[in-house]
Amino acid sequence: MTTRRTSGEGIHVFVNGASDVDWARLSVHELAVKEGFAEARAVALATAVSEIARNIAVHAGKGKMSFVPITDGRRRGIVVIARDDGPGIADIALAMQDGYSTKGSLGLGLSGAKRLVDEFHIESIAGAGVTIRLTQWDEGDVRGE
User: Fold this and answer.
1) Looking at domain 5-137, does it have CATH number 3.40.50.970?
2) In terms of C-beta distances under 8 Å and separation of at least 24 residues, what long-range contacts does 140-144 make, across chains too?
3) What is the pLDDT of residues 16-42, one digit of tens each?
């Protein structure tokens, strides 16, 4: 079994409002390009990050996102860890359904982000926040559930 290793300290973005959503998207896209990702995969990751950052801004008010390059054997990737101390998600399964929204949006943020990346994991504690971990690899179809 190959051990995943981080390469470098990564990039950290504090999300406190709409302008930080844009900064998070730009930062992870630039990192993906620097790491040699194909443009389509870099854009998919940046879009997923944008959706998660927007959820932090809207539902929690503030949080932090970290973007860390990793390796797994010969594969290179980027792990995104998003954390907030907001109210949490009471029913993750419901929140992951397309069309579910508590704020009148299209309800595609979490489910859309999951579809755009290779690995997606979400944890929530009611009243204590949400942690989401996304992983995008630099190669073709490696999607894992």
Assistant:
1) no
2) 142/75, 142/118, 143/118, 144/118, 144/119
3) 988 899 999 999 999 999 999 999 999
